[in-house]
Amino acid sequence: MGFEGAVWQVRGGREPVGEIVVDETGFPWLHGTFTPGPGFPGVRDLFARELVLAEDEDWETWEEVHDEIRRQVSLVAPDGPVPEFLLHIEGDRAWFRWSNEPFGED
Hints:
The protein is an alpha+beta fold. 25% of the residues lie in helices and 42% in strands. The chain is built from 2 helices and 7 strands. A 7-stranded antiparallel beta sheet has the order 5-4-1-2-3-7-6. α1 runs antiparallel to α2 (59-72). The mean pLDDT is 93.
């Protein structure tokens, strides 16, 4: 399955959060251009905080923020929702990985 050019959706409660058009692949990550939707302002600060915490290697707090992101948004592949994902958004770029099975507890 080729991923480049595929459009993935980020969905929130009542409004679309945005779309990612994949333009780069590097297993296990896909990278792409992020176009925000009307729901993005409601989660923008969470994504910004998540990146700062990762950079600071504050993994305990990072996990709390990541869990909140997962509560507020879902990731939808071209063929349907994915049950597990890790998503980063910075400006007009997004990178993510996903699984059809829950991630391990490593």
